[in-house]
Design brief:
- The radius of gyration is 23 Å and the shape is globular.
- The protein starts with a strand and ends in a 31-residue tail after the last helix.
- It is mostly helical and about 400 residues long.
- It is about 55% helix and about 5% strand.
- Strand 4 and strand 5 form a beta hairpin.
- It folds into two domains: about 200 residues, Citrate Synthase, domain 1, CATH 1.10.580; about 100 residues, Cytochrome P450-Terp, domain 2 (Cytochrome p450-Terp, domain 2).
- The strands form two sheets. A three-stranded antiparallel beta sheet has the order 1-2-3, with no helix packed on it. Strands 4-5-6 form a three-stranded antiparallel beta sheet.
């Protein structure tokens, strides 16, 4: 293997001089005007607007509009967008029948990926140079993804999906379809803000997957399906599920320090801590923590929050000097748990939010498209001579 370690952390091919950066770490792959992150200061902005301001003043659909179209909507634009999303929440009975054939034991992310891809069969016209087609595709995906997540949850329980209610706003309607009861206004508002916090985060793995797929000029349903498949991986989505499992394993606040020391000694990852972009506490985690406390004041305390706070305090002295602090996953699971969302739906809920960011990057990719085709560093055999089969030795087992 003709590679040599570099001081930069990458590897350089001895013959060609090409440097390899595993995972494209620190390698700019595109230009984007959608989202900016300052990991040293803990700042996150959508189209230049600080997340803290959006979380107080905006809504998920207004934020989605901002991300996708580049500017905050006027009152008329927002009303029209909200109305269009509301009118497209329902899915074809054929999609529901397809979902009824999925195994009840299947993971909801697999069901969502399959269902998102299936939408492309119903809207198969690929007119990506038509602004009207792009707008309608955006509306359909934002509208129907929550309906399909909620539908699979009820179908796997042996029940028929609940139809959307036109009198309920976006987030309240999803909670209604999921739990079969109209949510408390505070719960719906906090959930809507959670969606805003997860809507976009620069060129993460699923967004990069979306842009690579978009660069082939395929349809937006395939773009979203590919991103969902990437988000399903345990190194990307699903960490908030693991945080809850970790907190349950710790059990009580007084055990947090011992758990942390043991995990550090064994070099195990502390779930919900650390982020490739941030060297301070994730600003989304700061906002989510305030949501947790607001919900507990209204709906009752969760003892796992005490465990989480103790773990964060213990980690501050041990991990803080290394730039490892709580990320967005550390507190989001506690919010979803209090909202009554099943644990294996945490990542599909992530997808409901992130579809706004994926579509923003899809549209941006179309604006100055060039198909992604990175190079590689070859580390295989040098040219060899063909060997007849009767002269070959046994190959090593795969």
């Amino acid at each position: 293997m003709a590679l040599a370690q570099q001081q930069t952390g990458g590897l350089r091919h001895a013959r060609t001089g090409i440097e390899l950066r595993p995972g494209l770490d620190g390698v700019p792959a595109t230009q984007s005007a959608i989202c900016d992150i300052d990991g040293e200061k803990g700042l996150l902005t959508y189209r230049g607007y600080p997340m803290e301001e959006l979380a107080v003043n905006s809504s998920f659909l207004e934020t989605a509009y901002l991300l996708i179209w580049g500017e905050l909507p006027t009152q008329d634009q927002l009303h029209s967008f909200e109305h269009e999303v509301q009118m497209h929440r329902r899915v074809s009975f054929r999609v529901r029948d397809m979902m009824k054939c999925f195994p009840a034991s299947g993971h909801p992310m697999d069901a969502l990926q399959s269902s998102a891809a299936a939408l492309g069969l119903f809207y198969s016209r690929r007119a990506i140079d038509d602004p009207n087609y792009i707008y309608k595709a955006v509306v359909r995906l934002i509208a129907k993804i929550p309906t399909m997540v909620a539908a699979f949850q009820l179908i796997r329980k042996g029940q028929d999906p609940i139809q959307p209610r036109d009198d309920l706003a976006y987030s309240a309607n999803f909670l209604y379809m999921l739990t079969e009861r109209e949510p408390d206004p505070l719960a719906a508002r906090i959930f809507d803000r959670c969606l805003m916090l997860h809507a976009e985060h620069s060129l993460n793995a699923s967004t990069f997957s979306a842009r690579v797929t978009a660069s082939t000029l395929t349809d937006p349903y395939a773009v979203v399906a590919s991103a969902v498949g990437t988000l399903a991986g345990p190194l990307h989505g699903g960490a908030n599920e693991d945080v809850l499992a970790m907190l349950e394993d710790i059990g009580t606040p007084d055990q947090a320090g011992a758990y942390l020391d043991h995990a550090i000694a064994e070099k195990r990852k502390i779930m919900g801590f650390g982020h490739r972009e941030y060297r301070v506490k994730d600003p989304r985690a700061v906002i989510l923590q305030s949501f947790v406390e607001e919900m507990f004041d209204e709906f009752g305390h969760d003892n796992l929050y005490d465990v989480a706070r103790a773990l964060e305090q213990e980690a501050e002295s041990r991990l803080g000097p290394k730039g490892i602090y709580p990320n967005v996953d550390f507190y989001s699971g506690l919010v979803y748990r209090k909202l009554g969302i099943p644990r294996d739906l945490f990542t599909p809920v992530f997808a409901i939010a992130r579809v706004a960011g994926w579509l923003a990057h899809w549209r941006e990719q179309l604006g100055a498209n060039r198909i992604f085709r990175p190079s590689q560093i070859y580390t295989g055999s040098e040219p060899r001579v063909w060997m007849p089969i009767d002269g070959r030795v046994s190959a090593p087992a795969a």
